[in-house]
């Protein structure tokens, strides 16, 4: 017989049923999931403990003179060195070898930037634009499609904004807690997540209602333990420091998912509760929006109550998606769901508002942009161009390239900004960094534009 020129048969032919059975193992049980979870947990802590500091904390890498003058403080290297020499009180950096490059912590970089900002040329942008007296801008990154790059985009934007000198708060609304892991957060239960802020907002609503009930001579609705406890929780007590000096975190873990069951129960018993205002109201009431410049909200791949809260709180909404048919299709349905969800909230509110002669509710965002992530120009140019043609301005013109740097960064280093460029081929590093810098630049354009609009209208109102 002649050997078959087509090579061996594909692997799905001739599977022997008895051999298949012998590989199958026992039927799975609920208990089995417990064992799987424990195995993952053990592997995870093994990974997470590698390369940690002795106290178990994460440490951010240092930044070299090259990187600082190239990416962070735009001055000539010679000038940078001269300024340091003339100002011995400024951080001088450390070198690993005699006469080698000087390295600085991010804290030191921030001090240097402040120095250049006050002493340096006024023609240069050392400190990023931030109108005084206006609240932080809240930015939600959302799409109900999973794995489109929400967390990676939000984390990289948070890090670039921090490197740029902004004070950043990251809020994890996803009970998967990926963002929390990236920033090394420790969250014991739902009481260290945004959950108590939502509960407090409802408790305050209920208290107001009870006052009205008492005034009408009716019996008040008692506040249960959860609600009474939540009344004592301030946002500041939920905020954790991270290994980034100017990034703080309100973390998440599995129990946060409980909010998806609890919120509809509260909505049923308190019909007038404005759940969509909960996050903004509580963050504003506790002064959080004055303590930070930018707040990033990472959301779960679902349009549940937590996502709705995040979306309603956001000033800027970014919707990441890959340039593939399935992601484009599903993102279209996501926008459709946003339309029906927010218009049904507006309609319900506005019936009540009209009856009471009050102003209606109309949600508004400074900007909504779809952002192409994991872009492969050699395969996806045509689809991306089509998406651009249909979405117009809604699609951010910058496409975030697929980069191996994200997958390559180790368990202690999350993404491009935490990685040491010496660990990579210089060209790979520069290209990977450029694509995320451009993602940030496109975002910063929206941020500054919306602050500017607010600043002008505040000014107009004052005149
Ligand atoms: N620009 C990129 N280049 C290469 N890989 C990327 C890029 N952006 C994201 N990824 C990878 O894609 C995967 C999904 O990303 P990510 O976790 O950010 O998505 P997500 O939308 O937050 O997912 P989920 O819906 O589960 O929350 C991750 O493995 C991430 O490392
Ligand atoms: Mg995610």
Structure characterization notes:
- The chain is of the alpha/beta class and 463 residues long.
- It folds into two domains: 63-119; 137-462, Rossmann fold (3-Layer(aba) Sandwich), CATH 3.40.50.300.
- 49% of the residues lie in helices and 11% in strands.
- The radius of gyration is 26 Å and the shape is globular.
- Bound molecules: adenosine-5'-triphosphate (ATP) and magnesium ion.
- Adenosine-5'-triphosphate is lined by residues 146-152, 174, 178, 301, 373-374, 400, 402-403, 406-407.
Descriptive labels:
single chain, Rossmann fold, 2 domains, 17 helices, binds adenosine-5'-triphosphate, binds magnesium ion
What's the helix and strand layout?
Layout: H1 17-24, H2 30-49, E1 63-64, H3 65-72, H4 77-86, E2 94-95, E3 102-104, H5 106-119, E4 137-141, H6 150-163, E5 168-172, H7 178-182, H8 195-215, H9 225-230, E6 240-241, E7 247-250, H10 259-269, H11 278-285, H12 288-291, E8 294-298, H13 305-313, E9 316-322, H14 325-356, E10 367-375, H15 377-391, E11 395-401, H16 404-408, H17 426-462
Parallel strand pairs: 4-8, 4-9, 5-7, 5-8, 9-10, 10-11
Antiparallel strand pairs: 1-3, 2-3, 6-7
Helix pairs in contact: 6-17, 8-11
Bound molecules: adenosine-5'-triphosphate (ATP) and magnesium ion.
The site of magnesium ion (MG) has 5 residues, from α6.
